[in-house]
Amino acid sequence: MTTPAPTAPADARHLVLTLSCPDRPGIVNAVSGALARRGGNITESKQFGDEASGLFFMRVQVMTTVAREELEKDLAELARTYSMTWSLDEVGRPMRTLIMVSKEGHCLTDLLFRARSQGLPIDVVGVVGNHEDLRPVADFYGVPFHHIPVTKETKADAEAQLLELVDSLNVELVVLARYMQILSPTLCERLHGGVINIHHSFLPSFKGANPYRQAHERGVKLIGATAHYVTPDLDEGPIIEQDVTRANHEDSVETLRAKGQDVERRVLAQAVRWHAEHRVLLNGLRTVVFA
């Protein structure tokens, strides 16, 4: 006879805690003990100690009836003891997301479809385009479209408009879905850890513009895509996810691009999901991904 799984109380909250701190004995016990003292039932827990950086990383999901504010008080005390950086959120809460695009719509269409029909935990509060080409896609999904053209002369004003949108819409995540513009160092620092880009190559190979042409010229047998956090250094940000597909001698630049676009969609969607589920923690130039 199978014993049914215990059900959570009707007023229970399912929370996700992520943290990082200098590695030392007793961290897991301290965190789990603090949650247990508040009646928390841990439903998922993963941790990683990085010998190279000397940092410890942890992600915990906990079911509790205790007010979130009470848990936050306990966690703040732990943070002082362990020099801990931490965040606490509701499991599954859609993350307020702004998607930035140029003319190619495959990544935008895929993200909007997954958010509507496949449980991607983002709330797309707007689409920003430096061209008007993809306004019909945003309109189809009922998402406001903001046209912010960018030239060398207007770049500073365009980024100021972007930051106004980020603040007014309470944006938590910005996704560059083939935006094809380089963000300024000032903007990268302002949105640090909150901007994900999809680059159409398997970094660190073929950085910058026209990676499919570069791949064709080199005759590669694998092409790929890389989702990474944006930093002031072009295509150098911490990598979240990568994937590849086969190429051969018969491929042209255009057939490589067509093959690659499918990989781009998958990689970007996976990276956005992991970020929205608080499964990605920054570790210097790298990431820890609790997939």
From TrEMBL:
Q: Does the keyword Hydrolase apply?
A: yes
Q: Name its pathway.
A: Purine metabolism; IMP biosynthesis via de novo pathway; formate from 10-formyl-5,6,7,8-tetrahydrofolate: step 1/1
A GO molecular function assigned to this protein is: formyltetrahydrofolate deformylase activity
Q: Which SUPFAM superfamilies match?
A: ACT-like (SSF55021), Formyltransferase (SSF53328)
Q: What processes does the entry annotate via GO biological process terms?
A: 'de novo' IMP biosynthetic process; one-carbon metabolic process
Coiled-coil boundaries: none
Q: Which UniProt keywords apply?
A: Hydrolase, One-carbon metabolism, Purine biosynthesis
InterPro entries reported for this sequence:
ACT-like_dom_sf (IPR045865), ACT_dom (IPR002912), Formyl-FH4-Hydrolase_C (IPR041729), Formyl_transf_N (IPR002376), Formyl_transf_N_sf (IPR036477), PurU (IPR004810), PurU_ACT (IPR044074)
Protein name as annotated: Formyltetrahydrofolate deformylase
